[in-house]
Amino acid sequence: MIGMVHKREAKYDLALKWFEKLHSIVNNSSEVIFEIADIYDKIGNLSLSLEWYNILISVVPTDPGILAKLANLFERNGDRAQAFQYYSEVFNRLNVAV
Known about the structure:
Structural class: mainly alpha
CATH superfamily of the largest domain: Tetratricopeptide repeat domain
Oligomer: single chain
Order of helices and strands: HHHHHH
Radius of gyration: 14 Å
Number of domains: 2
CATH class of the largest domain: Mainly Alpha
Largest sheet: none
Helix content: over 70%
CATH topology of the largest domain: Serine Threonine Protein Phosphatase 5, Tetratricopeptide repeat
Shape: globular
């Protein structure tokens, strides 16, 4: 996929355009939403990254990896209470799986 090639080459603006175009076609694809969120994180736009990860968590609400990523982003953004909430959710999800 062209978006992945651009992302791998750190051409994040081009990658983002491709993934956003793909998202307009398949708007519930967790893979596409993840790539958009990850690109925003890589370019340092925490607010948009959080926004897209929140969209992603509505598609895959029990994924502990995504919950942990949200916790990390909230912590980096200075919102320790929200980070703690997501870290707790990760802990609960992992304990259910065991």
